[in-house]
Each structure stands twice: as structure tokens, then as C-alpha cells.
Write a structure and sequence with these properties.
With about 270 residues, this protein is α/β, with parallel strands linked by helices. The chain is about 30% helix and about 20% strand. It is built from eight helices and eleven strands. Helix 6 (about 160-170) links the parallel strand 6 and strand 7 (about 175-180). Helix 4 (about 85-100) packs across helix 5.
Length: about 270
């Protein structure tokens, strides 16, 4: 859920539930002002306008905003502007996770960080009442140097006490399992036999392919896999590796306007 950029500008467009955040190589203040003015002009012509996370949607229904349960879970879990900017990505995850409830199998997230996405999903789905488990895998100490060939590690991933805070965040969910360690080795500590939903956000092509190699056969037919960074230009190495991996198995990953990728296992 993190994009690399030289500068990040936070554009506070007057939309009901989200904060506009755009990632780019803004040369100076005039670049940021141009983007802000463009969005404001779009709002005068098209209604409604969704503008955030490098996505601008004009004159769309944005029906997910009518899902009050989702919007409440989103607001309850978003702790900062960066998280509040991710509504469109969260909507993808919520749709896939809710559809996955029709299938047998547990849920998996590879790459948890602070637990924002899984926090929204567990509240939205009232996961404590479900007869399935949610496995959350992360080092909780950044990307290991030997796996960070694309140089996507960040000091933010090395927050002191991160693992303990994530464990506390999900302490009210007896069926959520927070697993600390390097993928795929950490799967030997705990892993589901059948998977209905998987979210992959490891910021490393090596780690994401390792996760797929280890867990794909456990994904049930019709199961959903959402790749967080699949369409972002800064993560092209992940797309190329995952595209080739899926093609070998006669699958195709759909690149979404959000920058995510979606695979439904057949």
C-alpha cells in the first residue's frame, strides 16, 4: 500500500469520506497547484468526482459509498490521511472478501504492516462470528535485504513495537492469527489448508512469488487473490513476475484502475 515518490502532496478535495492523496515527482509548488486546480475544475463539470490515490473518476455512481457498514469500518480503521486515501482499494478488498464467504476456506494476508486493510475487513465482515480463520503474515520489521531487490523497503516498516501493536489490534478476534516471520518460512509456523481469499502486499517480487508458490495450490476453486501493487509503475518487476507465473498456470491477472491486480482461481 505504499508508493515510492520524491514528494507526496495531500490535496484536500471536498469529498464526503476520503482524502485526496497523489504520488508523483512534483517539481515545485506550481505542479501541486495545477493538480489541485484540475480536480476542482472537474468537480464543477462532473458530479460526483472521486480523486485520490492517483485515480480520478468522473461522473460515476460510486455505489460503494452507500454501503454504510463498509464506510463505518473504513472510517473506524483509517488512522491517517494516507490510509483515508485508500477507499477505492479497500472497496476492491471488501468485495472480494465478501464474495469469498460463499466458499470454503480461510483468509490470508501476506504483508500486513499496521493492519489497516485487514482491520477494515475483519470489522466489515464481523469476522469474530465466522467459522474460519484469518492468517496475517509479516516480518513486522521491514523487507529483508536479500529480498529487497527493487529497493522498496522503508523506515516506516521498521516501527518499534509494530508486531505487538498489530497483535493488540486484533486481540478481540479469536480467529485472527498474527504470524511473524519471513515468507515462505513463516508458513511452517501456521498456515491454512484451504484458502478462499488472499491479499498479497509484500512490495517484493521475490517474496510475492514465494507466497504464490507455497499457497496457490491451497486456494480453492473460485478463490480470490488480490495483489496490492500489481499495476503501479514503480512495481513493474512484480507485475512481470506475477504475469509470467500466472500464465504458466493458464490464469490471467486483471489489472485494475486502483493499481491492484485480481486473480480468480479456476
Amino acid at each position: 500500500m505504499r508508493q515510492q515518490s520524491s514528494k507526496t502532496t495531500y490535496l484536500r478535495v471536498r469529498l464526503k469520506d476520503e482524502v485526496s492523496v497523489f504520488y508523483g515527482k512534483f517539481r515545485d509548488r506550481s505542479d501541486r497547484e495545477f493538480l489541485n486546480i484540475a480536480i476542482q475544475r472537474f468537480r464543477q463539470i462532473f458530479r460526483p468526482v472521486y480523486a485520490s490515490d492517483n485515480v480520478i473518476l468522473l461522473g460515476r455512481n460510486l455505489g460503494f459509498r452507500r454501503d454504510q457498514k463498509l464506510m463505518k469500518a473504513f472510517r473506524n480503521n483509517a488512522a491517517n490521511d494516507q490510509e483515508r486515501s485508500l477507499l477505492l482499494r479497500v472497496n476492491t478488498l471488501a468485495w472480494a472478501a465478501a464474495e469469498a464467504l460463499r466458499l470454503e476456506g480461510d483468509f490470508v494476508e501476506c504483508g500486513v504492516w499496521r493492519g489497516f486493510c485487514s482491520g477494515v475487513l475483519t470489522e466489515y465482515l464481523e469476522f469474530q462470528n465466522l467459522d474460519r480463520a484469518f492468517y496475517l503474515y509479516d516480518t513486522f520489521a521491514g523487507i529483508p535485504a536479500e529480498l529487497d531487490s527493487e529497493k522498496h523497503d522503508s523506515p516506516l516498516f521498521h516501527e518499534p513495537g509494530l508486531y505487538d501493536r498489530v497483535v493488540e489490534r486484533f486481540s478481540r478476534y479469536p480467529n485472527v492469527k498474527v504470524v511473524k516471520g519471513i515468507i515462505p518460512n513463516s508458513f511452517s509456523t501456521a498456515a491454512p489448508e484451504r484458502i478462499a481469499f488472499m491479499h498479497i502486499d509484500l512490495n517484493s517480487s521475490t517474496s510475492e512469488i514465494a507466497a504464490l508458490e507455497a499457497l496457490f495450490e491451497r486456494v480453492v476453486p473460485g478463490g480470490f487473490i488480490v495483489f496490492d501493487d500489481y499495476g503501479w509503475i514503480g512495481y513493474l518487476a512484480q507485475q512481470l513476475a506475477e504475469e509470467a507465473w500466472a500464465r504458466q498456470r493458464k490464469h490471467r491477472i486483471l489489472e485494475l484502475p486502483t493499481g491492484q491486480g485480481l486473480l480468480i482461481k479456476h
